Amino acid sequence: MKIGILSSGGDCPGINATIRGVGKAAITYGMEVIGVLDGFTGLMFNDTIQLSERQLSGILTLGGTILGTSREKPFKKKEGDVIADKPQLIKQNCAKMGIDCLVCIGGNGTQKTAAQLSELGINVIGIPKTIDNDVWGTDVTFGFDTAVNIATEAIDRLHSTANSHKRVMVIELMGHHAGWITLYAGVAGGGDVILIPEKEHNINKVNEVLLDRCRRGKPYSIVVVGEGIKIEKKNGQRAGAYVAEQIERGTRIETRVTVPGYTLRGGCPSPYDRILATRMGTYAASLINERKFGKMVALRNNEMAAVSLKETAGKTRLVPHDHFLIKQAQRVGTFFGD
């Protein structure tokens, strides 16, 4: 068999470890492996490279992706598109290249595209990746643990400067509409207030909590904010800046905001993410060997599983209001804005 591997969407720690896992395992099954460059764009222009043992060696610890990536969505028509029917072109090119199965490494958008390609008759296996941890159907995605580690370290560093200046420090973390990074890093970093997109917040109540901390002899506070929380946007103002502004206005406490941004998805993957990526990659190769296509690799109850791409497409995994970590954090005094 001949398989193609691509990475699509935002970069993420652990993609190279996944490519290595898929490729090396596939080679042991006697398969030929090629890498598709720059996501689905590479399929439209036949832009590929051969992936042998040599190319797959030494990439386990590397951040980013050796194949490059793009946010090309072939099923979404855009003004100015030169190619009239991208999906059909991809199908034709896969046939010309002799690709027996396409491995798509990516987040929600990538898995949706993978499901659509599967319906088009292309053999596809999806592997979920995103620091946001919001792909439906899997308990966790690789990249999330690394992002939480980086975010937690940032929060740890804010404690000392917040204490020195008796300030409120607001840190805004990535995650789109999902608050997984904010929740986990906020709890791990000892955030006093954690605001996630899934829960409505009352800024007046937040301010009262911060003032009460001052009255109880706690002169500084850490407020961890998910980028996707609902705010009254002014001139494109970010969530963290808005919350900081409202806190300073409502409490008269000096407040500063920090946005780690893309640093959360850069650099080497954590040991956990290297292991998870390897597990997912090798499991994907085993599914291909068994001719079980149209599936997304998933981790469920710490066991590898195959989920139908049709089942995952178009769904987002959000933090439930009754999540155990929210309840446990509330018991130690963490305020969630409501």
Entry summary:
The chain is α/β, with parallel strands linked by helices and 338 residues long.
Helices and strands, in N-to-C order?
EHEHEHHEHEHEHEHEHEHEEHH
The termini sit apart by 55 Å
- What is the CATH-assigned architecture of the largest domain? 3-Layer(aba) Sandwich
CATH topology of the largest domain: Rossmann fold
Structure write-up:
The chain has about 350 residues and is α/β, with parallel strands linked by helices. It has two domains: about 1-145 and about 270-310, Rossmann fold (3-Layer(aba) Sandwich), CATH 3.40.50; about 145-265, Rossmann fold. Helix content is about 40%, strand content about 15%. It has twelve helices and eleven strands. It has helices at about 15-30, 40-45, 55, 85-95, 110-120, 145-165, 180-190, 205-215, 240-250, 270-290, 310, 325-330, and strands at about 1-5, 30-35, 50, 100-105, 125-130, 170-175, 195, 220-225, 255-260, 295-300, 305-310. It has a seven-stranded mixed beta sheet, sandwiched between helices. Strands 7-8-6-9 form a four-stranded parallel beta sheet, with helices on both faces. Strand 4, helix 5 and strand 5 form a beta-alpha-beta unit. Helix 1 (about 15-30) runs parallel beside helix 10, helix 6 (about 145-165) crosses helix 7 and helix 8 (about 205-215) crosses helix 9 (about 240-250). It is elongated, with a radius of gyration of 22 Å. The N and C termini lie far apart (about 55 Å). About 50% of the residues are buried.
